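User:
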Amino acid sequence: MLVVIAVVLLVFVGICAVSLHYQPENEVEAYKQALLAKGEKLEIAQVAPPTVPPEDNGADTVRAAFALFTAGGSDYTNQPVMMRIVAPGKAIVGWAQPDVHSYYTNTWDNVIVAVEANRPATELLGQVVYFPAIDFQLDYSKGPETPVQHLWPLKSGAQKLSAAAMCDLRAGATASAATNLCTLLALVQETHEERMLLSQLVRMAIASIATSATWEWLQATNATDAELATLQRSWERLEFIEAVENSFLMERAAMESTIQKMRASNQNFNRFAGISGSAISSGPGGSADWLDDLRDIWNDTKIAGARFMWRTSWTYSDELQALRGDQIVLESLRTIQTNQFFNPAYTNILNQFEAMGISNNPDEWFLKLDIPDFRRIFSDENGTWSAVVRRTMSVETSRRVVITAIALKRFQQERGNFPEKLSELTPEFLATTPLDPVDGQPLRYRRNADGTFLLYSIGENGKDDGGNPSLGTGVTATTLYWQSPHTLDWVWPQPATPEEIRSFYEHPPK
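Assistant: Predicted structure:
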């Protein structure tokens, strides 16, 4: 009986596929032609990064350092916690504490032993600053299957560099700490042309490590202006918005290539959709129970029907949805690059995504028969695209705040006090007055009577709350951290007082 139903189902699916095929296909082709007419590029070869000459490529040096890190122990359990927020707008100077208070150990001796074991690797990694780029020569033609095994050791190397910098600061060696931080930042900038969204997210994660490490470094009292200026230039070289745009271009081209492959054969469809072997192809008899064999045939028939629907009909709605979503993000990123701030472009992404529907919804019979839904393979159901843009806004804000904080310290060391206004930093310490990437207005700043300063961005809520680093009304969170989406403003923290530190450890967050 199940076999008869399976045959009927396949016939029904075929009729539906034919009836739903032609209009979506024509819409996709028309939309592609419109994109091409605007100068958009849809092929992987057209959006691949330029080739880096061997003499300019630091990849071999990085790989050699990776090998040394592995030899010295890849499980890094002695990572000091940096810029730990213990109260709104206040952070612990980690390197100045008698204990590490990390998640694994509370002795500096353990950290120092691990750092020394990895010193040959960190010193070798330091040579990357002499190369214009680090090109791991990714094979983008593989689309979503492009190997990116280098990303984890890249981030791990950044963590080890930051740990080495913390030990340097503890020993008063600010020059060595600055060298390690500049190396860390070189890992970020020299992989700028790596055009995978995952690669860009790892770049941002490494930049976050560098943000915390730089905050720790700025709490030292013996850093020279030359060291400060060198670190500031390293931060100023970083770029994220264009790099993310290029990655979205590659994402779109890889999607187009993958869709063509999935349409071409069931084998390709199964591979990219994550479908394992089929009872239909292998035939009955795999189970001792003939009822189990029939159930397998029935389940495989449903998969085959859904796969047929996607390859002949749903594929075009899915492709059109993805192309439109990519274009919304790309145009918004270009607007952000022009205006140098994210609102209202980011809000526009959210609004347009919400307004976008998914066409070719299956007939209710497909739902009742529990046919797998392959319609959304390439659509942004989980909000990944907008989340990448939001993360880009966050890391660009960090970059500008860090640069401003370094310039403020340079001003204070030369003049004896912090400036009354940020405009006083130009042109000696900054080329222009720094702007908040959220709204394009100058970063908010004021000099405090106690010799400190308040520096902040208005943060994710897009509203100036007067430099309030507290959680929003009705929001609860177990921990506070720099750029938390739950805080009112993104306030660059000041060092916590001994009383605030003691209170934090006596009443740790749950």
